[in-house]
Automatic annotation (TrEMBL):
Organism the protein comes from: Mytilus galloprovincialis (Mediterranean mussel)
Highest taxon above the source species: Eukaryota
GO-annotated molecular function: nucleic acid binding
Descriptive protein name: Integrase zinc-binding domain-containing protein
Alphabetical list of PANTHER family matching this protein: DOUBLECORTIN DOMAIN-CONTAINING PROTEIN (PTHR47331:SF6), PHD-TYPE DOMAIN-CONTAINING PROTEIN (PTHR47331)
Classification lineage: Eukaryota, Metazoa, Spiralia, Lophotrochozoa, Mollusca
InterPro entries registered for this protein in UniProt: RNaseH-like_sf, RNaseH_sf
Amino acid sequence: MLKLDPFVDEHGVVRVGGRLKHSDLTLGEKHPILIPGSHHFAKLIVLHYHKQIRHQGRHLTEGSIRSAGFWIIGLKRLVNTVISECVLCRRFRGNLMTQKMSDLPEERLKSCPPFTYVGVDCLGPWDIVTRRTRGGSVNSKRWAVLFSCMSSRAVHIEVIEEMSTSSFINALRRFVSLRGKVKEFFSDRGTNFVGAANELGIPAICVEDKTLKTFLNEKGTVWKFNTPIFVTYGRLVGTTHRHCSPHY
C-alpha cells in the first residue's frame, strides 16, 4: 500500500494518491478508492462489473473496475479467480467437442509401391495469356488434375487444356508412364467425373465414356466413387464407398 501513496479524504475513505491532483479527471479516476483484495466486498465489485460488461474477459473487467473509481489490491489474481468460477464464462470458453474418427481404409494401410491406390480431383480453371493463331485464339483457360497417393500421400499434378475425356486420358497416360500402373482410382461424384454434366452442357470429364472405360480396362484399373453427398476428406478417415468400375 505504501507504493500507492494512500491518503484519507474528508469522508474517511482511503484513496490512492498520485500526481494527478490538478487534472480535469473525475475524483474516482484521479484517486480511486483503495480496497483490499482479500475482502468480500472486493469480490462483489468484480462480480458486478464482470456481469455489467457481459462476461468479456479479464482485461475489460479490470478496465471497467478502474474506470468506476476502485483500486483493488491484487486485482488481476482476483479477476482470474472470479472468471474461472463463472459458469457462463466456462460455458462460453469451453473446449469444442471433437468427433471420433473412424478406422483408416485398407488402401491407406497396405504395403505397396507409390501411386498404386490414387485419389483424383480436378482444379481450376485459371486464366492464361491468350495467344493469337491463324485460326483464331487458342483456349485461354487451363485446368489441373491432382493425383494423390493413398499410402505415401505423395502428390502428382498434370495440366490439361480443357475439361474433356480426351484431355483427361492424355493426362492419365502421362501419369501412368511416369508413376507406373495404378490398381485403383478414387474420386468424388462431382460433375467433373459423372455423365450428368454433359446433359447440363458443363465441360466435364465423364468416367462412363466408352473411350475412358476402354483405357482403364487395358490398364487393369478400377475406378471407385465416394458415397454421394460426401466430402473428399472422407476417403482419408475411412468409410464405405460405392463401387463404380468399368467392369460392371
